[in-house]
Design a protein that fits this description.
The protein has 90 residues and is an alpha/beta fold. It contains two helices and three strands, in the order βαββα. Helices cover 38% and strands 13% of the residues. It starts with 9 loop residues before the first strand and ends with a helix.
Length: 90
């Protein structure tokens, strides 16, 4: 779906039924069509290491207050919007 639709942001849990969240993240970030979509990890499990070159915009640990998630999403979208403005202007 991320390859075929305009997606502004992805929230990603690390514990998924069919594959790991790290595998989903790896696929997203290595595909040129989806690499620039900001990803916020929302999970009880935080990845052990993101030092593998996979860009994550933010991490929110479960359980969380709705305000924390909204703050993360809003901040990530604002940062993404600024990056796009700089990229298109430069």
């Amino acid at each position: 779906m991320a390859r075929n639709q305009r997606i502004d942001l992805i929230t990603l849990d690390m514990m998924l039924p069919d594959m790991t969240g790290m595998e989903v993240l790896r696929r997203l970030k290595t595909d040129p069509r989806t690499a620039e979509i900001p990803v916020v990890i929302v999970s009880v499990m935080q990845p052990k290491s993101l030092g593998n070159g996979l860009d994550v915009a933010d991490q929110v640990t479960k359980p969380f207050a709705l305000e924390k998630l909204m703050e993360s999403v809003h901040g990530t979208l604002e940062t993404s919007k600024r990056k796009q403005t700089v990229t298109t202007a430069g």
